[in-house]
Every structure is written in C-alpha cells, then in structure tokens.
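ugh ok fine here u go
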Amino acid sequence: MDNLPTIPNKSSAIKGRLTQTESARLAELEPKIEHGMTSFVEVGNALLEISDRRLYRETHSSFEEYCRDKWQMSSRRAYQLSEAAEVVKALPENVNHGSHLNERQVRELSKVKPEHRVEVLEAAASTCAVTAATIKAVAAAKGELLTTKNVTT
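structure:
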C-alpha cells in the first residue's frame, strides 16, 4: 500500500510557473477545447438548416440517408444535435448561448419547458457546479417544469 502514488489535492497541485513555451502552448490548446465544447451547437445548426431546407436533395432522397452516407450518423443522432442547438439558441443572451454548456447538459435542459430553462440553470448553478446530473436533479425536483414528452409515468 505504501507504493501507491499520492494524488495531490487542489492546493498542492497548483505549484510552479509555466515556461513561456508552456504558456504559449496552453494558449493554443484552450481555444480548441472551448471550440470542442460548443461545436455541437454549430453542427446542430448546420444539420438543422440542411434538413429544413432539404439541401441534401441533389445527392440523397432523404435526410436520414444523407446523414448515414455523408457523416456515418444516424438520423436520431442528427436530430439530437439539432434539438440541442435549438435549445442553446433559444437561451437569453445573458446565458452566454451555451459556450459554458456541453451537449449532455443541453440534452437534460431540453427536457425542461422552454420558459423554465433559465430558472433550472440558475438553480443548478446555485447548488454546485452545473452538470447534466444537477440539471436533471433540479428539473426532477421541479417536476411540473418538465415537458410532457419527457415525463414518464
């Protein structure tokens, strides 16, 4: 048991300064992570427009066929991404349009009636870090806020 590595706690893990090279690399990497966290919105918006405007029709007879052939994606997954993008787009400007929300969080938020989504986000943020689990827990505690399509009996 004595040979196990110790896991540093937060206070001891924040030690040492980054070199100029390390700082520059961190500055390059963080935007990539940020983009990855929000790219589902861009993908969802693009899929939504392709579907709504039937922009696939020159090469495919259906949106489902287009998604499968072009992106190796089920239409169900494409619709999930589109719905997530719509949820983010409908959030008020002061909610930062999802740049701090990941797709899993937005999927839980989509189960809440649109007029109550900000309230659920604020309640989740007041309890601890906003995660999909906290969004789900807050929404469940306020059961009347759930959309009818997501309420199971």
